[in-house]
Queue: 2 jobs
Job 1
Amino acid sequence: ATPTSIMVGTGKGAEMGVLFRGGDALQSLRDVQVVALDKTGTLTQGQPQLTGITVLADHDEAEVLTLAAALESRSEHPLAQAVVRAARQRGLDLPDVEHFESLTGLGLQGRVGGHELLMGSPRFLAEAGIDLEDVQDAVASLTAQGSTPVLIAVDQQPAALLGISDPPKPSSAAAMAHLKSLGLKVVMITGDDERTAQAVARQLGIDEVVAQVLPEGKVAAVQRLRACGNKVAFVGDGINDAPALAAADVGLAIGSGTDVAMESAGVVLMSDDLHQVAHAIALSRATIGNIK
Ligand code: ADP
Ligand code: MG
């Protein structure tokens, strides 16, 4: 491509809210065959709501929600905000947390009111040796709806199961169809539960899912797609997505996402409508043309 065509393409991108941070991304996008996307906050609205609490053993709902929200008040995860918001809406006072620890992509632990709390994905609690047999069915029915199951154990005993729902953006399904109409393969990459991710993918017409991965796992997934000879674009919004944005042939960050994501991406999308991804690729194909 000539410097002039890059300049024209970059200008047109800016007009449609697609900001190319340098000419490389505009050029590389032309050859992209696979678009991999983060789920939470990218394909979904990213503002999860607590939709249900199942209390186990002889725990009281307000008591468990208080403990859970106290722990989550120390986390910046979108799931944490859903739990804290629900507790505040019920007027619950949140006690202090000691020995707080956040395990990225897994959950939280800490000591509240003399109790040892563990909170997070079923996998995280299972690995911590919590017996989850009695909640398997409840977890399965949440994940089948595309909700995220968050478990709480108090003193090593399962105490409650929270259902947290983060609906897809209204435009996401059409945006995925748009990408496919350009001949692109679409893949979801997420740290969320495998069955939750599959349910959301089905709603969006996405046929390939890589789930339950830690942030390094997102990078590994991008590298695997690249190792198959594909040119890969990755779309994400979170701090967790920064390494994958940098590892892709082209990283596209949602402009309303985190600064870290934007700094790691070659392209910043000013709207959170994922049609912008298809527009960016179509623009690259039109400006760069078929001959370099
Ligand atoms: P995503 O890729 O969807 O943004 P993350 O890697 O941030 O997901 O988190 C993966 C999983 O780890 C979540 O679905 C949840 O089960 C668990 N998890 C992470 N942080 C928390 C938290 N603060 N509270 C409860 N669960 C959490
Ligand atoms: Mg995200």
Job 2
Amino acid sequence: TTIYLKDYTPFGYLVDSVHLTFDLAAHATRVTSRIAFRPNPEASDKTFFLHGEDLKLIRASIDGADITPEITDKGMTVVTPDAPFIWEAEVEIDPGNNTALEGLYMSNGMYCTQCEAEGFRKITFYPDRPDVMSTFTVRINGDLPVLLSNGNPSGKGEGWAEWTDPWPKPAYLFALVAGELIAHPGQFTTMSGRDVELNLWVRPGDEGKCDFGMEALRKSMKWDEDVYGREYDLDVFNIVAVDDFNMGAMENKGLNIFNSSAVLASPETSTDANFERIEAIIAHEYFHNWTGNRITCRDWFQLCLKEGLTVFRDAQFTSDIRSAPVKRIEDAIDLCARQFPEDNGPLSHPVRPESFQEINNFYTATVYEKGAEIIGMLKRLVGDEAYSKALDLYFLRHDGQACTIEDWIKVFEDTTDRDLSQFKRWYSQSGTPRVTVSEDWNDGTYTLTLAQHTEETPGQSEKLPQVIPVAVGLLGQNGDEVRATEVLELTEAEQSFQFTGLAAKPVASILRDFSAPVILEHDHTDAERAFLLAHDTDPFNRWQAGRSLAQDTLLRMILEDATPGADYLDGVLAVLRDGELDPAYRALMLGLPSQSELAAALFDRGETPDPMAIWTSVETLRQATAQHVQDLLPRLHSETLIEAPYSPDADQAGKRSLGNAALALTSRLDGAAMAAEQYAAAGNMTQQLSALSCLLRAGKGEAELSTFYVQWQHDRLVMDKWFALQVGMASPATTADVARTLTEHADFNWKNPNRFRAVMGALAMNHAGFHRADGAGYALLADWLIKLDPVNPQTTARMCSAFQTWKRYDADRQDLIRAQLTRIAETPDLSRDTTEMVSRILNA
Ligand code: ARG
Ligand code: ZN
């Protein structure tokens, strides 16, 4: 069944309070609920339907009178009084056998929950929809030392604890944790002087991985006060680390639950990239307390209301406490790698979808990352001051409500007097707009003509022009900026902008700071790109110039058998030599477009991408780059030799990132000899893992792989890296075999999503390996998706997206992929999650 946005109606009843009692038992947990309902005066449909799935009903009553309702696999409909009433029910659930990791489940002997989006209905009967909000009181009975739920503690004794959450919330924010956990404590005093007790709860053995997460939490709390004026609103804030978790983390009110990979960190076990990601996720979940929890979503179609805004806020946070240009470049890389393929393939959907079968399939790069880009464009269009005013109004007007994108847009219209109806198309039109550029120079006047076009996407054949903020600056022939950055508003299919009074024809730097999530088509020559790479005053576009130059170089190598051009090689050399440039930025400059992006670029040009030819071009360009910058490499690598004690801060991390990029190039010249030395001497995971990856890439590292295994066998998060790295670094011919062999390893605990993704995710990401011509990669992934589906539909469905780009490839590969997708689709009892994904991928 498909659910439609247009069918929204409010629930017939309001909930005044929820009291829950949990009697914990691994295979027979009893959940007793006592809920005060009253008719909703705003609703015309008074059907009393309560969601409920996989629940064994023990008893139910209304106002004390027992009832025997008819139950379907979705829930129950009951006739109720037309007046306030008390609903009571007792159900039994089996957390010990809940492998889907949705609802109440167990992970390493610990009870935990994941209710977003629709998991609460697996805990008890309830109107499980985000616009039904209530205060919750929760009593937990169980003989485990730590018993946690949302809100503030309100009672405690031998074998029980009670929690009261004073803030009305939807059921998806409910959480419960019980286990043998150790607290890593912290403290925060809010801007109005209230004391908040902080705890990071972990399993014994993980105590040494908490410092960084706690500090990140305190920084986030302070930042949200300073920048958004948002104060925390409970006496305690708890975070729990869980090993078995489908996603990154969850913002449950006052009790955030995290995938342990998204919170636990230590220098010995985590890379610099892990630290940065953890800091961002902790901030993200904390920021949800206002954008998500205090103001939530009316229905799941509005998911981007909280996710887009919260991703935007966590990106602002990272930019503020690290480097803004580096963060912007990282986000652009991520958008091109994950969102563009989604937006331009069979899974394309609007940032606010209009229909779905399984909402868990819409926690996507489009909803999150494109959703965040929309907020960034809005801020750029209205200006920083108006943005702040609009946000103040949003918090003031909508606190305690379940809102829509219309509410969000309205606060901007009301603070700026702008008509944002055309801008709103960003939420309803799917597909990535392509902006083409043409230029004219005439007698001191430079004319820039921009045209926009969006290809048709599933369900949307006609596209209207969108409002695209295009930040532009002009450079003079000597490299000076002759016009500072200005935001052009492209609102029509085609529009011209004039710059007058110029002495000579300028070089335009277009889409500075990646001012809109579009594909820019600008026929620059290599020389112009090299000029921008050398001179652009906008750090993002300077990086982008290098990226485009690299891409054009690679495409010519693939299509025309060209050799790597001097413009690219000399440009990179000059950047690497420039000691004034941030090391992190120089490291990013060394990056190349991914092989999957090159495949997309070829497909866009009407060519059929050949994965092996793409792989070869990248290897050749890497080799040529290593030779070209050879003399600089020892000095660049020495950046990693930091005297000070290890710190994951942006400064040190940037140096290591440049040093390790130099190591990767060096390994192409010295047979990975220097990498072997670095591996032997490494005192932190960043150094150890980058050295190991160079060794593997060079076809070496057998011995190191074994010692790594012995050293880290006890650490699940490090073992995930051990699994992923072997698949990621395997050669195209062996990737599928390496992955298959690893699935036979005793430590391949495939029911753990992190471990499953370590192998299968790395397989799908190894472009040439996954697309091996005989289809071995496709078949292996399909085998495992079929095996995982009955156990964990959510993780299975997410990984189906590995096949979303299948129509780019040649007919033989398409046949092979179609056969695998069909095999999955025809599996008996396939989950709703996977069914929806496979049919969208196949049928678009
Ligand atoms: N709201 C969470 C976050 O963005 C994501 C939880 C999604 N979980 C799911 N099963 N769909 O931080
Ligand atoms: Zn979120």
